[in-house]
Amino acid sequence: MNALFIKPSSLGDIVHGLQLAESLKREIDDLKISWVSREMFAPLVESCRTVEEVFIFNRKGGLRDFIRLLGDVRKREFEWVIDLQGLFRSGLICFFSRGENKAGRADAREGAKFFYPKMPPLPETGKGSHALEILLQFRKLFDLPPELSGAIQFNSDLPEAVKDKLLSNNSATKLLLFPESRRAEKEWPYFEELSSLLLKTRKDIQIIWAASEAIKVDLPFPGEHFVNLSGETSIESLPALIESADIVLSNDSGPMHLAAALNKPTLGLFGPTSPNRFGPWGQLDRVLTAPDGDLRNLSISKVQEQTEYEIDKNI
């Protein structure tokens, strides 16, 4: 069976979609997954063992590139085409694809519902349900319960220079920090202060910072205890970096969802967004929520206490 999943963005949503696809692949014989992804996320999707083929959606490529994408998709025939994005453009891709069965989100927007005849209902908790729980409802189309089955895996590796930095203190508990998020109000502002406090009081840890853009961090600690990989980590190497860590501390972000999907202990820091909808799946007990939805009000001491608790559990 060939199935096309349309989920161009964003990183966290793609991770949830890949979890759904893998859970279906575990239970449906000979299921082959194709994917529509934005160019910036395509390397990660291509490295996922769940996916056989990736169609590139260049959002900034204009009408000509979008027509090219539709043409590429129409060269293939699918038993199922599933729009996990639920927006006008993803609905158009679904409409023009050649599929025996077409389905999309019950909470689709921008008129996308008109492009597909099948829509699994939302969970009982409606639009306030967790993002992954909403996607798992698509399993009902295949007479399967809306439950997660299996775990996603990647063909991912780290550059040798990064490996050398991480191996400089191989016996330490590796704490991987993601201080970046898509919106400034979702970024906890005290990662540097927390790192300094932890490194002053503990010699049994190595803290690693990772981000898509370079972040200047002024911490006077040697490499065996602090490594700044911000701006040095490609998206396709993210799974390998997360796998190399013992604990992940992150804002509400795509890497947080990826870490949870890879079953790493993941502490999520939440402010204006709801952890019930967007928290690390299966690890909501590790979420710290800021008072009044403002991450500036989430104290360093509270995050430090929870982080050290996880470090001590790991020893």
From TrEMBL:
The keyword Transferase is annotated on this UniProt entry: yes
UniProt-listed Pfam families: Glyco_transf_9
GO terms for cellular component: cytosol
GO function term, MF aspect, one: ADP-heptose-lipopolysaccharide heptosyltransferase activity
GO biological process: lipopolysaccharide core region biosynthetic process
Keywords on record: Glycosyltransferase, Transferase
InterPro entries attached to this UniProt entry: Glyco_trans_9, LPS_LOS_Heptosyltrfase
Gene3D superfamilies reported for this sequence: Glycogen Phosphorylase B
UniProt protein name: Lipopolysaccharide heptosyltransferase family protein
Species classification: unclassified sequences, metagenomes, ecological metagenomes
